[in-house]
Amino acid sequence: MRASGDFRVVVGAGELVRLDCDAPVRVLCEQGALWITSSAAAEDICLSAGQQAQGCQGVVLLEGEGVLRVSLLDAPARQACSRPTGLVDCAT
User: Fold this and answer.
1) How many helical (H) and strand (E) elements, i.e. helices and strands, does the chain have?
2) pTM of the model
């Protein structure tokens, strides 16, 4: 399934979540702490609540425990990132 807008990903302790993003995304850690590995980045990213990173693309792996908001950077590519299991729509 492809995302049609911003969405949240809830990552539980011990979980590994995979996103497949054809276009660059912005990720904002809303709660907890998360480790992000992106196939398009040279280094991994560690985010705590309130921190964000831009440009994650390709295969994006999320580990840790927390809530991450994913926003597509390129408005025309609003269906460029697959939704993982266990997500909650931002509108709710």
Assistant:
1) 0, 5
2) 0.74
Spatial distance between the Cα atoms of 16 and 36, rounded to a whole number of angstroms: 10
| CB environment 79-89: b (16+ within 10 A), e (fewer) | ebbebbeebee
For 51-85, write each residue's pLDDT tens digit. 999 888 888 999 999 999 998 876 544 444 555 54
What's the chain's average pLDDT? 79
Residues with Cβ within 8 Å of 61's Cβ and at least 6 positions away in sequence, in order, are 16, 17, 18, 19, 36, 37, 38
User: Hey, what domains does the chain have and what are their CATH numbers?
Assistant: 7-89 (2.60.120.10)
52, 18, 37, 2: CA torsion to nearest 10: -50
